[in-house]
């Protein structure tokens, strides 16, 4: 079964390593979202793949059977901020990697104006200057839920917090 301290990887690399269009698109995403490496894109793609796969499975079920599970999936994606409140499974199937990258803590910190650039946002997060509801989060890849979005700010122990108070 494997060592529980070493969990199974949650991503898979692309099937063919040298597709020019994909490489160009990945480089654009890395620059736009300040990602450290392409693995972060592949992790987002794997998460998205799982949600889309689940949506396709639900579409194959009869309507009366899938209703409960469909609501659960749509509620989960709504809470993550990926779809609107009255979304359908077609909206889940139309999600892109960009939609998921927009929900990363690093991106949300930059969009809120707490950082000067997307790279600065990554550094603030990894150095422990950003907190969600007063609790420090040091993972730039943390997917911010819809209800946590307004709770993001500087950590109370951060020098940025003291500057923001003045």
Report on this structure.
The protein has 166 residues and is mainly α. It folds into 2 domains: 81 residues, no CATH class; 61 residues, Roll (Structural Genomics Hypothetical 15.5 Kd Protein In mrcA-pckA Intergenic Region, Chain A), CATH 3.10.290.10. The protein has 8 helices and 3 strands. Strands 2-1-3 form a 3-stranded antiparallel β-sheet. Helix 6 packs across helix 7. The longest helix is centred in the N-terminal third of the chain and has 23 residues. It is globular, with a radius of gyration of 18 Å.
Q: Could you describe the largest sheet, including whether it forms a barrel?
A: 3 strands, antiparallel
The SS-based structural class is mainly alpha
Cα-atom Rg, whole angstroms?
A: 18 Å
Total number of strands: 3
Q: What oligomeric assembly is this protein in?
A: single chain
Strands side by side in the biggest sheet:
2-1-3
Order of helices and strands: HHHHHHHEEEH
Strand proportion: under 5%
Work out the helicity level: 40-55%
Task: Provide the residue-averaged pLDDT.
Answer: 95
What general outline do the C-alpha atoms trace? Answer: globular
Report how far the terminal alpha carbons are from each other: 54 Å
Family: Belongs to the universal ribosomal protein uS4 family.
GO cellular component, one term: small ribosomal subunit
InterPro entries: Ribosomal_uS4, Ribosomal_uS4_arc, Ribosomal_uS4_CS, Ribosomal_uS4_euk/arc, Ribosomal_uS4_N, S4_RNA-bd, S4_RNA-bd_sf
Keywords: Ribonucleoprotein, Ribosomal protein, RNA-binding, rRNA-binding
């Amino acid at each position: 079964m494997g060592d529980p301290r070493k969990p199974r990887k949650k991503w898979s690399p692309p099937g063919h390593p040298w597709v020019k269009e994909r490489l160009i698109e990945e480089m654009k995403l890395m620059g736009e979202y300040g990602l450290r490496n392409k693995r972060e894109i592949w992790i987002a793609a794997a998460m998205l793949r799982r949600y889309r796969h689940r949506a396709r499975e639900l579409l194959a079920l009869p309507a009366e059977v899938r209703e409960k599970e469909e609501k659960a999936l749509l509620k989960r994606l709504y809470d993550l901020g990926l779809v609107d409140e009255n979304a359908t499974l077609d909206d889940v199937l139309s999600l892109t990697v960009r939609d998921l990258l927009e929900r990363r803590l690093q991106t949300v910190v930059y969009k809120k104006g707490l950082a000067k650039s997307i790279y600065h946002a990554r550094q603030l997060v990894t150095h422990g200057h950003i907190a969600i509801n007063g609790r420090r989060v040091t993972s730039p890849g943390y997917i911010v839920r819809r209800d946590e979005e307004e709770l993001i700010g500087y950590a109370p122990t951060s020098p940025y917090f003291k500057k923001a108070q003045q």
